[in-house]
Each structure stands twice: as C-alpha cells, then as structure tokens.
Amino acid sequence: MDVLQLDVSGRPQAWITTREAAVIYASDGVAWTLGDPCQVLRGGWQRITGRQSRIEVHSIIAVRGAVPSRAWRQAPALTNAKLFVRDRFICAYCGHRCLPEDLTREHIHPTSRGGQDTWMNCITACRPCNGRKGSRLPEEARMSLLYLPYVPSLHEDMILRGRRILADQMEFLLASVPRSSRLHG
C-alpha cells in the first residue's frame, strides 16, 4: 500500500511507501493529511513513560518545505502501461478490449515518417490492427480512429501509474481530473 505525497499546496508529487511516510512524520515534515490512517507503525518503548512510540500513517500526506516537483514537466512520461490504462485497454481501430500482452503502442503518424513518440501521437492498438496499418497514416490504411489521444494531467498520471489506489486517494485525484477524461468512465 502506497501513500500519496503532496506538496503543501496539494499538488501530487509521488507515491511513497508507508515507511518513507513514517520518516517524514518522524522528522515533523507533514504539513497536513487527508483520508483515514491506513497503517499504524509501532516503535520502541520509552523508558520513562513506558509507552510505545506509534505513528499513524494517513493515505494522503502533504509535505512541508520545498519538495522537488515533477509538476512543472510539460507532459508525464509516456510508458506502454500508462498508455494502455489511458485508453482503457481498447484498440483505437477495431474497438476490441484486449489483454496488455495483446496490445501495442501505435504511432498515428509513424516514426519512420517523422512522427514523434508523444502522448498526442500514440494510441493503443491490438497487434493485428497495428500490423495492418503498418507504416502508413490511418487515412492511407483506411482505418479511422475510434477515439483521440490526449496528454494526461498530473492527477491523471498519478492514477495511470497502476498502483493499488485506495478509495480516498482515488477520490482526491479524480476531483481534479476533467469530467471528459476516460478515467471517469
């Protein structure tokens, strides 16, 4: 189970482990939290009071101070796993839902013809459709797109990373995802 780390303004920064979150708690680096505690970590016993140290780790934490931010990047990193989730494992040409191992990253404008490896030029395609299109443009292959590509927002990117996301984390992230996003469907 991972913890969603935010900066103090509420911008998602990273997925971290509960142990990494505990270090932030112990160093008084947590500015505020959301969600219910997801794990309780217990430490040693205090000699004077006889009480055991305890840290309740919440599923969403905002970290004080300057956190290196990936939020200023123009676009999130493109990976096949995130692309397939963005496109809901559906081939953009035939519309069939496929298993990840039966899917490919398809370049609308082929790289062999100067197309870029970007979110706006890549869609999910099944192997047969990708082979049928080859290094042609969709119009040349007489294959039309059933949906259009888009660049995921920072909040969508956090969802697309494929982690086991808790309900309160998903609710927080989806609140900032446009209603038109395929992630709402």
Number of helices: 5
Strand order in the sheet with the most strands: 2-1-4-3
Order of helices and strands: EEHEEHEEHHH
Structural class of the helices, strands and pairings? alpha+beta
Largest sheet: 4 strands, mixed
Report how far apart the termini are.
24 Å
Helical fraction: 10-25%
SSE topology:
Layout: E1 2-7, E2 12-17, H1 18-26, E3 30-45, E4 52-63, H2 80-86, E5 103-107, E6 122-126, H3 127-133, H4 154-160, H5 167-174
Parallel strand pairs: 1-4
Antiparallel strand pairs: 1-2, 3-4, 5-6
Overview of the structural elements:
- The protein is α+β, with helices and mostly antiparallel strands and 185 residues long.
- Helix content is 21%, strand content 27%.
- It is built from five helices and six strands.
- It has a four-stranded mixed beta sheet with strand order 2-1-4-3, sandwiched between helices.
- A hairpin with a 4-residue loop joins strand 1 and strand 2.
- The radius of gyration is 21 Å and the shape is elongated.
- This is HNH endonuclease.
Sum this structure up briefly.
It contains five helices and six strands; from the N terminus they run ββαββαββααα. By secondary structure, the chain is of the alpha+beta class. Strands 2-1-4-3 form a four-stranded mixed beta sheet, with helices on both faces. Strands 5-6 form a two-stranded antiparallel ribbon.
